[in-house]
Design brief:
Chain B: One of its GO terms (molecular function) is oxidoreductase activity. The structure holds two protein chains of two kinds. By secondary structure, chain A is an alpha+beta fold. Chain A contains six helices and five strands, in the order ββαβββααααα. In chain A, β3 and β4 (about 55) form a beta hairpin. Chain A starts with a strand and ends with a helix. The chains are: A alpha+beta, B alpha+beta.
């Protein structure tokens, strides 16, 4: 039996300790916002936070989370439901296309901004290059990170209109 | 009965426009007609109503749009949302015509029900009594009445999302007319209720207003009565100067759910409260191969494994968890039956291409375009230019691997899956489950990318067979490796050109032969360039792999071929690539404006740092024209694309931010393939398997992209999802040539810098 805090809630999980976090949260806990993309830590769609650090949940066994805290996309809004600054910026910059990779993108960006509140382009590259967006919304992701950081004003829509 | 339209001063012009619109709608937006007429009194509206009207107090005005008692207006959209944002945009078009504010609009996927789209549906819902006993109804479609049946029947789904068609067909010809019709029916209802002339009633923000008497009511007050109204003869469509929502960057309706984890994709969906079982599958890696034998001795001992099935054409492991199923499947030793494709490999296939092209020569093969005398004119050329280009197979690599959840019981089948063709997917599931198509319920979900891959939904058949064989509700998920191995690939191709220039460097002839069938047929054509003698042909070849539609389809190859060769002709003429194209575009003003737009954005001609270069390319696809200038930095070990300037004319940008996003997306998709990717075949099987050997462009390699929009033809809309892609590769290879003199004639570019 594993004891894990998931999005602030204590959970007891009776699963194969080798099961990746990805499948434990999706199938056992019904938290389907975390996505399967490649299974080999190449695409970042499965990114969650383990004690605040971004990890690829498809390649991290649930046993590694025993006694620790997992945060998924479902758990980063404020307690009252207010979206996080990163989530709000993702909406204001109209980032998602298909949206499948965006949980992972948002988790990577959230971790980046926690460590580096005002990241340079190089720091954004380094933190985000593990997350593939097949719809190619990299420019919008970069912009949204800067908007969330407060270093750039919102406005992709005005710029294009 | 009063005819509100007849009092409109612009009736005749509007009616003419509408007639044209509906003629176009017959092919793709067939649903518009079916559901539009569904509101006719006496029509079998009941069945449709049960499908789309859910809440208490919801009245079906017509099946493109419903109005709730809360005055929320739901647009029922016959396309799948796979990222292109078109569902939101076509709802925007409906809302504008209907005079509904964006905040009051909801979007709902049309159910995958034949009543929306099939020929049977048209006959059932449109046919009976439409003509001649109710001649004032839908009379604008009379000229194409018979044609519509044929066209709709031919289309494997009017319910199809592909061909960058949503906005320009469904939106323009279906949604706008439906919105205008709905508004007029509401006005007519209010006029009757209030006893005032319809012409005195105005509408705004989902409200009907009679200013003279100071009365106003929300649309919902008249929704039920409107549903009893005759469908207007020719609903008046707004002119561009009247647009309120159209042409604005209204925020997409689907985005909020995509930032908080609540968006439901196929892989997330399934029956509520049921004990799902999970399946991992593996089919023969060689086309035509089947399962000969398997040794599952290790797998059946593994935790969570419930069943191991030899399904003939694939092996499946069913377990309590997908991870357990896949892990067990990976231990099974499978042997495959022999296939005629066992020895297929890419090199042999390309050798076959070369042979076919040699045989076609300068005038053989299937003619795609033939005007002037391309062969004869070459004799007069002062300069002859020849070039051969080559592109590989490509996989779609949607972020969400193929998957399908199926549940078969009591002669019924439920399917949860992302597909671009729900009706085809439904039919495949029906066959797999052994039930009739009417007994299959398709549950609508988001698609984690489509790009053409989800136009071939064979996975619904596979999942339905598994569900039937096991009795469980089954969630089948393909591994990334299976997804890469079992794709329907963008065809590889070799394309040969011979061109001639006169003494002034003007192109006098263009002769091209290539191997792929061209879908759409205009993909290899260059009619917008001023060249008098043109021959375009293809040579038939054999394919050892499955082929499919890949974003921008044949434009993805020919954009590279054509614009590379134009660049080579410019170089041979000693002319600047932009100036050279300007001369070729003298009879194509919209193309020229787009070319000039991109060149201006990029500061074409201004100095660049040492080792950097600029290249331009132009393509028209899906009725949109796009030019792109790429800047490359060649000072490192491998080329780096630093900037892409994109100018697009899609007729009119219904949602400018949506169009811009689609250009950005198409450019990155095209650059990913151009820079890194090829699918190769060895011993009949695909050699690539996952993102380590089929690379994706990432944040650190993605260029800055700037997009400028020209609204060059407001009544002649173009697509958005695909047209950004075709110019991306040649813009980069032309830039590499400008920087280094190295002409890249084979993709991917990375091959030349290994």
């Amino acid at each position: 039996m594993l004891s894990i805090s998931v999005n602030g809630k204590p959970e007891e999980l009776d699963v194969d300790p080798a099961m990746p976090i990805l499948w434990a949260v999706r199938e056992q806990l019904g938290l389907t916002g975390t996505k399967f993309g490649c299974g080999i830590a190449q695409c970042g769609a499965c990114t969650v936070h383990l004690d605040g650090q971004p990890v690829r949940s498809c390649s991290t066994p649930i046993s590694a989370a025993d006694g620790k805290a997992i945060t998924t996309i479902e758990g980063i809004a404020e307690a009252d439901g207010t979206l996080s600054k990163v989530q709000q910026a993702w909406i204001s910059e109209q980032v998602p296309q298909c949206g499948y990779c965006q949980s992972g993108q948002i988790m990577s960006a959230t971790a980046l901004l926690k460590e580096t509140p005002n990241p340079t382009d190089e720091q954004i590259d380094a933190a985000m290059k593990g997350n593939v967006c097949r719809c190619g919304m990299y420019g919008r992701i970069r912009k949204a990170i800067k908007v969330a950081a407060g270093s750039e004003p919102s406005g992709s829509q005005e710029a294009s209109a | 009965m009063s005819d509100p339209v007849s009092e409109k001063p612009e009736r005749s012009r509007a009616a003419k426009w509408t007639r044209r619109g509906f003629i176009g709608a017959g092919a793709i937006a067939g649903g518009a007609l079916v559901v539009g007429v569904a509101v006719r009194s006496g029509n079998p509206v009941g069945k449709l109503k049960g499908i789309v009207a859910q809440g208490e107090g919801e009245a079906l005005v017509n099946a493109w749009v419903k109005i709730g008692s809360d005055n929320l207006v739901t647009a029922i959209v016959p396309h799948c949302e796979m990222g292109q944002g078109a569902n939101s945009t076509i709802a925007q078009m409906l809302a504008d015509e209907m005079d509904v504010n964006w905040e009051n609009v909801r979007v709902m996927d049309a159910p995958a029900d034949g009543n929306y789209v099939s020929q049977h549906a048209v006959r059932t819902f449109v046919g009976p009594g439409t003509l001649p006993d109710r001649p004032n109804q839908v009379s604008f479609m009379e000229p194409t009445y018979d044609g519509l049946f044929t066209q709709i029947g031919k289309l494997a789904g009017a319910y199809i999302t592909g061909g960058s068609s949503s906005v320009r067909s469904t939106g323009q010809n279906g949604m706008r007319i439906a919105g205008a019709a709905a508004r007029e029916m509401l006005v007519a209802s209010a006029a009757k209720e209030w006893g005032v002339p319809a012409a005195e009633i105005t509408t705004q923000n989902a409200t009907v207003i009679h200013a003279a008497s100071g009365r106003s009511e929300p649309y919902s007050a008249f929704a039920a009565a409107a549903a009893e109204q005759d469908l207007p003869r020719a609903p008046r469509i707004k002119t561009v100067d009247e647009y309120k929502l159209m042409g604005t960057p209204a925020p997409r309706k689907d985005i909020p759910s995509k930032v908080d984890g609540t968006a439901i994709f196929g892989v997330d969906a399934g029956p509520e409260g049921e004990n799902l079982r999970y399946a991992a599958v593996k089919a023969s890696p060689v086309v035509g191969g089947a399962i000969a034998s398997m040794d599952a001795s290790a797998a059946k001992e593994m935790r969570g494994v419930l069943q191991i099935l030899n399904m003939g054409d694939f092996v499946a492991v069913v377990a309590d968890s997908y991870w357990q199923a896949q892990r067990a499947l990976n231990t099974i030793k499978i042997t495959y039956t022999e296939s005629e494709n066992d020895s297929a490999d890419t090199a042999t296939m390309f050798a076959g291409f070369t042979k076919a092209l040699d045989e076609a020569g300068d005038s053989g093969g299937n003619s795609k375009a033939d005007y002037g005398d391309a062969v004869g004119a070459l004799a007069d050329a002062v300069t002859k230019v020849e070039a051969e280009y080559k592109v590989p197979f490509l996989a779609h690599a949607t972020m969400e691997p193929m998957n399908c959840t199926a549940w078969v019981r009591d002669g019924k089948c439920d399917i949860w899956t992302g597909t671009q063709v729900p009706l085809m997917a439904r039919d495949g599931a029906a066959e797999g489950a052994g039930v009739s198509a009417d007994d299959v319920t398709m549950h609508s979900v988001l698609l984690g990318g489509g790009f053409g891959r989800r136009l071939t939904p064979e996975y619904t058949n596979q999942a339905a067979r598994l569900a039937k064989a096991t009795g469980y509700p089954i969630k089948m998920i393909w591994s990334r490796e299976e997804d890469t191995a079992q794709d329907f690939y963008r065809p590889a191709d070799i394309s040969r050109f011979t061109g001639g220039l006169d003494e002034n460097g003007k192109v006098i002839c263009w002769n091209n032969v290539h191997c792929t069938e061209d879908e759409p047929p205009e993909a290899p054509l260059v009619e917008f360039y001023d060249i008098a003698n043109v021959s375009v042909r293809n040579a038939e070849v054999e394919w050892p792999v499955r082929l499919g539609a890949w974003r921008s389809v044949a434009h993805s190859q020919h954009g590279f071929f054509v614009e590379s060769f134009v660049d080579e002709l410019a170089a041979a003429a000693g002319k600047d690539p932009v100036e050279f194209r300007r001369e070729l575009l003298k009879n194509s003003p919209r193309h020229l404006a787009v070319l000039n737009g991109a060149a201006e954005m990029a500061g074409w001609g201004s100095p660049l740092p040492e080792g950097h270069g600029r290249g331009i390319a132009l393509a028209r696809s899906f009725n949109s024209i796009v030019a792109e200038v790429a800047e490359v930095d060649m000072t490192g070990e491998t080329p780096k694309v630093t900037k892409v300037y994109c100018c697009v004319d899609a007729g009119f940008a219904m949602n400018p931010d949506g169009l811009k996003a689609q250009m950005e997306s198409g450019i990155i998709y095209g650059l990913t393939a151009a820079m890194y990717d090829e699918i190769t075949i060895k011993d009949g099987a695909v050699e690539q398997s996952n993102f380590h050997d089929y690379k994706m462009m990432r944040m650190d390699d993605a260029p800055d992209i700037a997009v400028q929009i020209i609204n060059g033809a407001p009544d002649n809309l173009g697509g958005a999802g695909e047209p950004g892609l075709p110019p991306a590769a040649p813009a980069v290879t032309n830039a590499i040539f400008a920087a280094t003199g190295q002409r890249i004639r084979e993709l991917p570019i990375s091959k030349h810098f290994a």
